[in-house]
Amino acid sequence: MEKFDLIVIGSGPGGYVAAIRAAQRGLKVACIEKEKTLGGTCLNVGCIPSKALLHSTEYYHKVAAEGKEHGIEAKELTINLKQMMKRKEKIVSGLVGGIDFLFKKNKVTRFQGEACLSTPTSVQVGEKMLEASHILLATGSEPIALPFLPFDEKRVLSSTGALSLPKVPKKMLMIGAGVIGLELGSVYQRMGTEIEVVELLDRVTPPFDREVSKALYKIFTKQGMTFHLKNKVIAGKAGKDGVELTLESKETLKGDVVLVAIGRRPYSKGLGLEKVGVQTDPQGRVKIDGSFRTSVPSIYAIGDLVDGPMLAHKASEEGIAAVDLICGDTVVLPYLSIPNVMYTWPEVACVGMTEEEAREAGLEIRVGKIPFKAIPRARCSGDEEGMVKIIGEKATDRLIGMHIIGPNASEMIHEGVIAIQEGLTVLDVAHASHAHPTCAEAIKEAALATHNQAIHA
Ligand SMILES: Cc1cc2nc3c(=O)[nH]c(=O)nc-3n(C[C@H](O)[C@H](O)[C@H](O)COP(=O)(O)OP(=O)(O)OC[C@H]3O[C@@H](n4cnc5c(N)ncnc54)[C@H](O)[C@@H]3O)c2cc1C
């Protein structure tokens, strides 16, 4: 039996980062991955391929929709979907190969195969039995299917299927108006696909601030998406010629394909949790304490497999924290300052509390907002849609929430992340010099606006 200090099961952004951290700290580490490539959902069928396609289609859309205004005219602008997919695959294979390299560099031993817990300190992978004083579960999540509409990845698509369509569909139905659905819907809409979305709740992107959700509904509607909010798909069938959905409202929708984007659930199939006594909650998430320890003390769990937002950077932070805790450090993860981003155009990025959460918590707050049309740099790039909204606690002036809809929101949000993590006040942010002309000036102005001191609005 091969012996290690730590066995990591799963090589997504939670698992591979934890494995490297542990090796850097001097532990003898094994990482077991069932797929041929490392990197998990994020690198293979999640964050990275979706962003590659979003970038490609954004270029296309900018030239097609706005080129003329800039004085750029293309006689014949066409899409070569095969090349777009090839580029996406090249980016993915480069990055997953990079993790192989990092494993070798850091002397992480990689095993390919499905891991199954044997005892609290041993794991079976194929014919091999591995032993370690600590085991870290990082087996991630999988897309949820509707019972009456199983994925076939041809007509009924999960996010994985939607990342590799052989041709641009004429009409895509979407079930769920969450981040993953709207990102992938945007990819195809920019290439000419008609998008019709059914959402159970009364708003799009439910976890975001309500005002942000409302603004996004208007933006996506203007872009051409159709929404059926507060509605439910109760039946569906897929045939040779397309798909048909029946809604609770009795309407029938027809399309070439349907993307089912109703969420993801923790993945622990075949992991042997019950055998060794690792407990899960009713949603199937592995239960952990504040130190990522499961109900079995030698076994830890992180990432999509446990409670919290299903985000790659959250999984990575937890992976590092879990290893540091195993090594005897004291670690407290600042969950409130974990940002959440949607890479549509405009982008959306949020950190901290929404206005509703702050009010529900009984906090007295100040809210400052600035539209991007007041920001010169956004005027230059033609990205005037959206706003920055900042929420400060009245008593302390601490910045407790930042919500951005606008150009490069994904990059700008980190100013809010640091402010929340370090307990900065809204005026600390307002008084920091922001280069001109930049879109980040909107953050300074929104911070000033919370004190009715905005200059440009
Ligand atoms: C389309 C899409 C886009 C996304 N975009 C973003 C984004 O922009 N930003 C963001 O932060 N998040 C994004 N996410 C979410 C992100 O991908 C996940 O939150 C993240 O991958 C979770 O990391 P993880 O390490 O917990 O699990 P995963 O990345 O799911 O990795 C788990 C790994 O464990 C392996 N595994 C499972 N069981 C076993 C077993 N028994 N033995 C061996 N191996 C096993 C799996 O094969 C997998 O490789 C996106 C997800 C999707 C689907």
Describe this structure in words.
With 457 residues, the protein is α/β, with parallel strands linked by helices. The longest helix is centred in the N-terminal third of the chain and has 26 residues, at 81-106. The chain has helices spanning 15-24, 40-45, 47-70, 81-106, 159-162, 179-190, 210-223, 273-276, 312-326, 355-360, 376-381, 409-412, 414-421, 426-431, 441-449, and strands spanning 2-9, 29-33, 109-112, 115-119, 122-125, 128-137, 141-143, 156-157, 171-175, 194-198, 226-228, 233-238, 243-247, 252-255, 257-260, 264-266, 299-301, 340-342, 347-352, 365-371, 387-393, 399-406. The chain is 34% helix and 24% strand. It is built from 15 helices and 22 strands. The model has no long low-confidence stretch (mean pLDDT 97). The radius of gyration is 23 Å and the shape is globular.
Describe the SSE topology:
Layout: E1 2-9, H1 15-24, E2 29-33, H2 40-45, H3 47-70, H4 81-106, E3 109-112, E4 115-119, E5 122-125, E6 128-137, E7 141-143, E8 156-157, H5 159-162, E9 171-175, H6 179-190, E10 194-198, H7 210-223, E11 226-228, E12 233-238, E13 243-247, E14 252-255, E15 257-260, E16 264-266, H8 273-276, E17 299-301, H9 312-326, E18 340-342, E19 347-352, H10 355-360, E20 365-371, H11 376-381, E21 387-393, E22 399-406, H12 409-412, H13 414-421, H14 426-431, H15 441-449
Parallel strand pairs: 1-2, 1-6, 2-3, 6-17, 8-15, 9-10, 9-15, 10-11
Antiparallel strand pairs: 4-5, 5-6, 7-16, 12-13, 13-14, 18-19, 19-22, 20-21, 21-22
Helix pairs in contact: 1-4, 1-9, 3-4, 3-6
This protein binds flavin-adenine dinucleotide.
Flavin-adenine dinucleotide (FAD) binds near residues 9, 32 and 310.
